[in-house]
Specification:
295 residues, mainly alpha, two-stranded antiparallel ribbon, 7 strands
Length: 295
Amino acid sequence: ANQIYSGWQQSWKIMEASRNGDIDFSSAAALEFLGASGLNKDQHDAMNKLFKNLNTIQPRYIPQLFDWRLHVRCDDPKGKWTCNAPGQKTMYAYASNRDADSGLARINFCPKYIEPQTSTLPTIIKWMKKETDKGFKFDIDQYHDSRAHVWIHELLHIDWVSQAKSYGSNQHVTDLSINFVPSSGGVERETRAYAGRNTKILARWPENTGKYIMLNADNLATYALAHYIQGQIDGYPVYPLVNEEPSDAPHLFVVKDDGKVQLNVDHAEAKDWVEAGAVWCDDDEDQPKEGTVVK
């Protein structure tokens, strides 16, 4: 319980860095994770409002009757703790807008989040301030798996946080996937738009850029993280560098009835993964199901 609450407290620093809802869309963080300002202009107002609202997900000194309530648990109600994917770690947490027991929006934290190897963001920043290897210090992925970032990512799946559906004009924030051909060569790949490299690639898609950013939790969360980190380590975390761009529009995975996310691809490499039983863990229980068109 202490790791859960302290992770939430650490996430407040990330929230507060964007608390005024006045994103500098010409900044490096905005360009790399939210897309070029000319391509996401129609979503500027929605993005500003989202981050301003995100900053309110903190406790009051005096609780109010109509405060938002979030159910936090760590007993794995959906049996996802051991869900793995090729090259990926066991999941840290997963979210739902309605818990079956309480009826409240809920985040379930997994053992991976709680274990000692999962670092706190203040600890990582303390280390990195002394780091002499700039390629390591200014790599956003070194900060990405912190408990604070997990909190921000999962909160964005909650509709009253992201002002989605009945709580505003936004669509539900989920997890998108991208297809791209690696700059080093090889076959086209499909993967979730998650962590530094893949969220940057998604943001390079030139059509309806802002629309897709507003649908993908980790683009929004990693922008907020990079914006905060820049002020802590005396420089923008520019790595990993990318020059790839999506080869097709960002899209949803196929979500099976058991909640696991199957690769939705046609190319040979991914077919091999599917035949081998590979799955991606779905941390958003409200992700649109198979056949849904991203609009």
